[in-house]
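Troubleshooting entry. Yesterday's outputs looked truncated, so today I'm pasting the complete records for two proteins to confirm everything comes through intact. If either block looks cut off, that's the bug. Protein one:
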Amino acid sequence: MKKLSVTLAAVLSIVSVVVGNGGAASAEAGAGKASLGIIGNYSDADMRSMRSAGGAGDALVEMNWSQAEPAPGQFDTQYLGSVAARAAKLRAMGYTISLNTGIQSAPAWLLQRPGARYVDQNGVTYTGGAEPNLIFGTGFRPLAVRYLTKVFQQLGTNFSLVRAGGGHWGELTYPSSEKQRNLYFAFDVNAARGNPVPGWKPGRPSPNGQAAKFLNWYLDSLTAYQNWQVTALRQAGWAGTVAMLYPSYGMRAGDFGKAVATNLAGTSSAEINGEVQRGYDATRQIGALKDKKVAVYGTWAENANTVAYLAGLARAKGLPVMAETTHVCLPSQLPAVMGIARANNLAALYIVRLGAADIVSNASYLRTA
């Protein structure tokens, strides 16, 4: 779901997680008692109120790759210093710090390189966001690792967790377009080298199973990107918890078959909603996780079905699960949201953008049996 955009040197969000120094959130930590967290810009007074009266305990600092590295290999020490200073101030207030590295906000010098942007089946280059094509543009990945390494060198590793996803709004996703729904962003020059059905496009007849072959490759490619992100963080020096962001409702049993039955023409329910085109196959993705310090993080905490679905996948892998509300969640929904968190043994529940007073007044529902 939609997240706050990063427009400042470091956008502050208050987030609560069950952690120790360096990060690992345990699956047991969420047993019936989710930790409360807040995402949004707040005054120091509100932060103190939500910490003391609402129980928030962790502050998320978000970064922007394009600000940190405005030229290849040249890092803005003033920007990095401002992020470090913000983190230090928050720690002095009693917060632990979680981090969003912002690799989805690539510098212009990278996006200008051939193959650095996604291309759909119509040959149209995606320019709706600054996320780099690291799914198929594997040659650009060392640049991301270099950036991440610099981040940990400058900021250290005293974080509760590091968020990952690498797509729009930092989630694990392919791009999407509001103008046209049935777009598959796997037709750039780098993607072409691995495409198992070259020349075939979604919506065309597939007498030899081209639709299924393409969709399997498409979804597997995003899954591989997920696992690379975890590996990249390890290579860069981060040994703690990685919170992988899984958006929306997700593909469910039967959605794959329905989509390929009509050759990915965009007519099935999951295609109409964009779940297939954006690669929201959490079953495949979570099942492929190998690192035991990954937290399954959903972005639609108001949806009981979605939270239960992700929680079940996480439990099967022995991983903790967290969730956050969408940006359109209402204060009146908080009691139900917190009940969903309790019912699914979330390790952490994050509330997005709501007023501090609303959060404090509803915080008790998270602990009510």
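Protein two, checking that the full record survives here as well:
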Amino acid sequence: MAICGNLLLSSSIAFLAFAIWFNSNDFKPMEYHFPPPPPLTGPLALNKPKILEKILENEVIGPESIVVEKNIIYTCTMDGNCLKIIDGKIVKKIPMTKNEGCEALTRKSIAYCGRPLGIRRRNEKQFIVADAVLGILAIDFEKDDFDFIDNDTIVFTDASTRYGYTDFLLSFLEHGGDGRIIKFKISTGETQVLVDGLDFPNGVQMHTDKQSFLFCESATAKIYRFYFAGPKKGRLEIFLDNLPGFPDNIRISSSGTSFYVAMFSHRNAENPDLFQRLGDWLMTRKVLGMLFRIFPSTVVELLFNRGYGIAVEIDLDGKIIRSFHDPQGNIINDISQLADDGGEFIYLASFNNKYIGRMTKN
């Protein structure tokens, strides 16, 4: 009898604690709706690359962004290292901090080791690295050091003003429009919000017109175009709507005639993922938000279809011209960026995988 009483008391306390958290928590999901995903026909028809393989398997982890220059790849990884790779071999590794324990890959280690999310070539010697914790950095692979850059203007995405890198999914579930596009003048520290009210913006790519840039809105499966100069200055337009997956980064091809869009999850018309179906299930999403803090990986697996890999190539006007498929998701899986080498291959970056993917263009 005493055991039953203790169980009842414990259950009551747990329920009371949950009720207090549920009603007091500032996590407030907003309603959203998705149109049916586009059919996999035409340029979206099944197209599996002739060669689809992994390189550097178990030698890298979470290479979220890459710069590819012929046979050389530059990337930064989840454990806070930036790498120079030549012909598939790591020839240089530069830690972003001098802290120890970065290989632990925990919330705590990320807080003091950093989490690089984007890398771009700045000039002949330097690369710019955008880190979720450390900010904007510059790296010289020949001098083996990092430094804060002190000039130039950078445009970057702020995916969420409410949630940090490790709590990214809460921004998806809340759908509260707390993402922004920011222009940052490094030399003066001056910032300007160019676009706000976004649901997890991701990836910025300058358009060839030099008057606008593109960015993905991951949580809505859209790509936007913002004009910062010219007759349309200040205008925001939808560049491509209703993508066949949830996009991450967008990058221009080496030819300059198209853009590659990486998608971390496929939107299946026949079997929509749970995230798309929970648009007006606000209380359910609030519970999932609580569970995400306890079981993050489980909730991510529950919400998204990650078994089918897909990426697309679009032209300069926002029309899909080609797609790349991996029906089993063996390699095109959790991808965050595509970059081609100017020749036969396209390389696949990932925020999570322990390899860099490589596939033929045709």
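Both blocks look complete. Sanity check on protein two: The domain at 46-360 is CATH 2.120.10.30 (Neuraminidase).
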